[in-house]
Amino acid sequence: MAKPVGASRSSLLNDPRTRAWAFQIIAIVAVVALGWYLFQNTQTNLQNRGITSGFGFLDNSAGFGVSQSLIDYSEANSYGRLFFVGLLNTLLVSALGIIIATVLGFIIGVARLSPNWLIRKMASVYIEVFRNIPPLLQIFFWYFAVLRLVPNPRQSLDFMGTLFLNNRGLYVPAPVGAEGLTAMLVALAIAFVASIVVFRWAKAKRHATGERFPVLLTVLGLFIGLPLLAALVFGAPLHWEVPQLQGFNFRGGWVVIPELFALLVALSVYTAAFIAETVRSGIQSVSHGQTEAANSLGLPAGKTLRLVIIPQAMRVIIPPLTSQYLNLTKNSSLAAGIGYPDMVALFAGTVLNQTGQAIETIAITMSVYLTISLTISLLMNVYNKRMALAER
Amino acid sequence: MTTHTFKPDLPPPGKTVGAWAWMRANLFSSPVNTLLTLLAAYLIWLLIPPLLDWAFISATFSGTTRADCAPGGACWVFIKERFGQFMYGFYPTEERWRVNLTLLIAIVGAAPVFFKAMPRRAIYGIGFLIVYPVVAWILLHGGVLGLEQVPTTRWGGLTLTLVIAAAGIAGALPLGIVLALGRRSHMPAVRVLCVTFIEFWRGVPLITVLFMSSVMLPLFLPEGMSFDKLLRALIGVILFQSAYIAEVVRGGLQAIPKGQYEAAGAMGLGYWRVMGLVILPQALKLVIPGIVNTFIALFKDTSLVIIIGLFDLLNSLHQATVDPAWLGMSTEGYVFGALIYFIFCFGMSQYSQRLERKLDTGHRR
Amino acid sequence: MKMVKSTLAALTAAAVFGLAGTAHAGPTLDAVKKKGFVQCGISDGLPGFSYAEAGGAYKGLDVDVCRAVAAAVFGDATKVRYSPLTAKERFTALQSGEIDMLSRNTTWTSSRDGGMGMNFAGVNYYDGVGFLVNKELGVSGAKELDGATICIQAGTTTELNVSDYFRANGLKYTPITYDRSDESAKSLEAGRCDVLTSDQSQLYAQRIKLAQPDQYVVLPEVISKEPLGPAVRRGDEDWFAIVKWSLFAMIGAEELGVTSANVEQMAKETKNPDVARLLGAEGSFGNDLKLPKDWAVQIVKQVGNYGESFERNVGQGSELKIKRGLNAQWNNGGILYAPPVR
A38: nearest CA in chain B? Predict the structure, then answer.
């Protein structure tokens, strides 16, 4: 190949590969230098002002209480344990939120495509209204406007003497293990194993002979019948601890605190609007020919939906659905606005303030969310690869 | 001879036009549908009349204090009395014309960008994006040209919300495009840096980013250097949003057929010219709806600055509801706020959907 | 690379907009003099201590300390710029040099002096954690609060003190923590919690914000020591001394009977050597502090002595009507005690 005229003089500069190398080296050096610069600044700042650094504070006793904790926690416990309290609270609200938002989102997404005009319009109004209002405002609305209408503990709304709703939360009876518990658990385990056996056997039989076996009914029977039998023979597995009004508050039972309730409602309602849109576009992405083909094979409508449309739609739905789940998890950090003790409010908020170690607490908090996000992205990539392979 | 006896005529088919036919097709096509319709109608009956009653019929519109409000209905007097604060925050009353003027310049200045007939739209648009922030800053902050200085701590209400949203998008867009290009680069080091940057910001909640910028950023900087609180929040918002923009733009870059790159390269164009003259104009056009959607998300996210104590629209509403003179006005306040956010976000999403449809037809073969 | 760009962009933006303050290049005093004002961190709204009036001007006991420092340094109490800070931001704002001093009803504790890089310059209000409850509950003392739900501001010493108190007395409680005190008050009103806990001074301030203040009482118990005072960054002794002595000048002036009304006259005519030294008529003690000679005169003239500031902001001249109590002069039943100027 002939060299272009005049290129020899500055060939090194004009060689794209050399330039790429040079550019990359400059980029890396710049980033490292910036990192080093910031690190140096921070070090100097911390030292000059005598600010403690390091993660030693995690072992110190926290000394303050928390309104909701899934694990045993008392004021004497360490900041380290408090971290897990916050983490679990975040995971709790995210998990519950994801379940509710998914159910609600699928219903509304399907309703959005309903042949019924009224239902269709209502679904679109829901979607447009709730996805265009900031989630934080929705949380405030539920917490400061709606839940404040609920009466105080002494005038609790009472549902048959077992469920109590007041401005301290929703009190529900808590199950406490009784003598029949072991037997019940064993019965459930047996039912579970038996179901798997039945399922496999039925599948094999179907493949071999084409005959269908009523798997669902059998499994249901197993799961209801066996535990019932166990309860009859060995006695009730649980008894219920009913909340009682004592002093200022109800004691005993489980309580859903208003902060959790407001956060949950707001996040689910908000995310459901997005999920509904995802579901709608997923179902619409399956071409109409598929439905027609299924019809011409004689499949009834229900089976068409279940066996033909949904499996294909899911491939389109699942990636954006996961990112909605991630968004919900990240949005759960808005808990800080209403005092629900999640990761951000508890750790990046209170602990930061009590210890004054901003860098460490924020770094820990961020890395938790980063870990959750990256893990889910990773799983998503694996899923996408599998789906892509399944295409041919 | 066989005689043909005609069968009697079938009855005419049901009406396919008219209100009744429409209702039968859309509301009562099957027993299940009929049931659903009735259920939905009942739900609407349950919700709408009390809502209308609360918001309009029993509501109070005139007056100056809480005592003027009739019980049982909304008290819009509260909104009326606090309207200035919701719009401008603590911006001095006699200087508020500056905010209005800034907004007016934005509307008048940006309008030509949306007219097809305008020559050199792109260049004008970019020029406007560069000049406008300076003008807006001078007008809002003052301190020069004889304008009284209004420190950013006194900005608030919808003004601050719009400032954060506008500055956020203006900063995040160029940064996001550069990041997207970096992510698609052939240089592994650049690619890794960009991917790390993007995934980092996308993986953390904005609230922690805001915490970081308000609490940690000052410790990163050398002694003696400190930023205005609003600017710190803006840096956080821009870094955060640029990662999302980058992903949107990347989608557009991926959608451009390889032939375009090769053709541009064959013309002897260098990397920046290929990108600047051939690829980006096509890619960005494709992702305008995506960018608008990101902007909607950004607009909603501005409400989070309440957590670091900036007085945006939501915080102004929130503060007003704790005023002892107006206790019990939470619902009115939040409903009003929701309405404003809704108008902006819904308007933008309708625009983005229209664009999407328009662009869609262009690419259908 | 991108970080460089973004940071550079941010830096240039800051430089262009003139926002990159040079808060404390070297000694704070020089920097303050150069920029022409004291940047003072205050609370984001607490009646009596620091709050914005309708016009946007800040007032309060804590604000007066900022003003006193400005009066001492510049001879002009208006040369202050305020940064309203949330409880979370206050320490880093000081540590990072965003503000020159923090006067935000902050409790003086060893860990804040030690690990957080601050120096407390004295106490401008002796406070203690108390309880505000609804009269309906019929509670007369803190010991009856077993099982109560308590609203607390997140990240404060109150949170720790309440927990200590309830643990020490074997009582149970449920804490509900909010970022802002307004939200706590709102929650108390709505019945989300039975008790609002905070420094007593704040309880009075919160109470007047409620719709029916008479419906609520402050319980007699004070369960902790909360000495509130201004703080400065560690590592600048001169500035530390200035803030410290600006506060002492206010307290000392009250003890010596110097008020904003009579200060100029006394500066000229006084026979009392203590007053003469404080007001710069004798010696040059102000200069030792790197301040003008008439520093204390300016403070008292423009801000008033401690007693005046107290009465105006939180005492009988205000809506809070807090009694002097511990915050009276040492020779008047309180524990305020300013070291002598000499």
Answer: B220
Do C141 and C198 sit in the same domain of this protein? Answer: yes
Q: What is the ipTM of this complex?
A: 0.86
pTM of the model: 0.84
- Domain boundary (C161, C196, C224) is at C224
Residues C211, C149 share a domain: yes
Compare CB distances from C19 to B221, B228, B321 and report the shortest one's residue.
B228
B:31-90 residues touching chain C, CB 8 A cutoff: 90
Task: Assess whether C304 and C244 both reside in one domain.
Answer: yes
Relative to beta strand A254-256, strand C231-233 is unpaired
Which amino acid is it at A357?
A: Q
Give Cα C333 distance to the centre of its chain: 22
For residue A111 the two structure tokens come to 């309703």
- Torsion (CA) C331, C333, C335, C337 in degrees, nearest 10: -10
For residues A115-127, average pLDDT: 91
C247 shares a domain with C116: yes
Same domain, C323 and C268: yes
Evaluated on CA atoms B175, B180, B186, B188, the torsion sign reads positive
Residue A75: the pLDDT is 80
In a shared domain, residues C113 and C235: yes
> What pLDDT is stored for residue C15 in this prediction?
41
Residue A6 has pLDDT above 50, yes or no: no
Contact list in C for residue A337 (CB cut-off 8 A) is 179
Q: Distance (Å, rounded) from C-alpha B92 to C-alpha B101?
A: 15
Count of domains observed in chain C: 2
The secondary structure of residue A87, as a DSSP letter, is H
CATH code of the domain covering residue C263: 3.40.190.10
Subunits next to A (3 or more Cβ pairs <8 Å) are B, C
pLDDT at C14: 42
d(CA B276, CA A130): 39
Q: How far apart are CA A2 and CA B166, in angstroms?
A: 53
Name residues whose C-beta falls within 8 Å of residue C197's C-beta, 6 or more positions apart in sequence: C129, C130, C131, C132, C150, C151, C152, C158, C162
Residue C301 lies in a domain: yes
Residue A279 and residue A111 in contact, taking contact as beta carbons nearer than 8 Å:
no
Nearest to C143 by CA among A66, A257, A64, A247: A247
Per run of 10 residues, the mean pLDDT along chain C (length 342 residues) is 45 41 58 89 83 76 95 92 81 82 91 84 92 87 87 85 89 86 83 88 83 86 90 89 94 93 89 89 87 92 94 87 89 91 86
